[in-house]
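Hello again, I could really use a second opinion on something today. I've been staring at a protein lately and its backbone has me curious. Can you walk me through what the tokens say about the fold? Take your time with it, there's no hurry, and the full record follows here:
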Amino acid sequence: MMNLPYGELAIGQRARSRGRTITETDVVNFCMLTGNWLEIHANAEFSAKSRYGQRVVQGGLVFVISNALLGFDSEVVEAFYGVDRLRFLKPTFIGDTLHAESEVIALRDKGEAHGVATALLTAVNQRKERVMSCEFSLLLRRERLIVSPDE
């Protein structure tokens, strides 16, 4: 949905992504990239004694994977504009398969060439549980940026 120019979007438009399984490699790589080695993410023995009984995928990783599942078009997206009301509603575990659902909830002009589109973004697991929700905003071009191969 966020692969359309700003002027082609309408409040209420919906999209659903393909699924993606969260792997052990994803979690370890995210620990390495961010330095977030909290034991609830990285220590199976510690996590077995936690309220969840197993390692929990980092919320930041759930967020970035979920929004990336929407399939952005770089000819349309100028920039990530912001996120509001980010909530992790249920834990995500290694081996869970997530898909993203989005609905355009706000459109706001931002100059002559751009607009800000806000979508309610939800991550849903294979058990049909909503695990994350937020209002996700992008700065979008009104017209596609087409660069010829000669440039």
Q: What stands out?
A: The beta strands are 14-16, 20-21, 77-88, 97-110, 114-124, 130-141. Helices lie at 24-34, 39-42, 44-48, 59-68.
